[in-house]
Design a protein that fits this description.
globular, about 200 residues, mainly alpha
């Protein structure tokens, strides 16, 4: 695995995006365990895009304006929904006690949707992975799977670090209502901004 692939992947993974926001919000609102679960969900959401790229479906998505638009606007709607729920104190940044029962499946499902409903990820994988598979590679499919799994491991690791850091400062944030209110508005604005950015995205 080339240093170029590792460096490029780390830059992509560490760049602020919806997955990072979801993981940070989980850590701030529900603690380290929820952040790790959210990080796992965000990583799991990469799988459909990875499979699409490997099987060539991403090329079809890139070629089909209708398919791209449907997925894109579903993603936009979900991001705006998350922004609204965050402002209403019922969504991503809803503060809960450490022991408050909450389904891991709910956290994972929300995190998975964030990445699944982003068609740019499929196109990113379609353009990104082949660059690191040599023309003389005897088993290109296996190589793409290895690179994809490495990318997922890096995603999970970086997101867990983000989430655990957020959980570490959780008490300092949640004990100050004014700070929490500001962060809630900031997260909602970030989700809205990402929704607008996705809405303006072209194939």
């Amino acid at each position: 695995m080339s240093p170029e692939f590792i460096l490029t992947s780390l830059i992509v993974v560490a760049s602020p995006g919806t997955g990072v926001l979801v993981t940070l919000a989980a850590g701030l609102s529900r603690g380290a365990r929820a952040a790790i679960v959210a990080a796992f969900g965000c990583t799991l959401g990469i799988v459909p895009h990875m499979l699409a790229a490997i099987t060539g479906l991403a090329a079809l998505l890139h070629a089909s304006a209708l398919a791209f638009q449907i997925i894109k606007y579903a993603g936009v709607a979900y991001l705006l929904y998350m922004a609204w729920m965050t402002l209403q104190e019922r969504g991503t940044l809803r503060v809960e006690a450490e022991g408050t029962p909450r389904s891991d499946a709910q956290v994972i499902w929300s995190a998975v949707l964030v990445n699944v409903l982003n068609p740019k990820l499929s196109i990113f994988f379609f353009a990104f992975l082949p660059q690191f598979v040599g023309a003389t590679e005897p088993q290109p499919l296996r190589r793409m799977l290895e690179l994809s799994l490495a990318f997922m491991v890096m995603t999970l690791t970086v997101f867990v670090l983000y989430g655990v850091f957020a959980a570490a400062v959780r008490r300092h944030v949640t004990s100050r209502p004014s700070v929490l209110a500001w962060m809630r508005r900031a997260f909602a604005a970030a989700f809205m901004a990402l929704g607008v950015k996705l809405a303006l995205a072209e194939r």
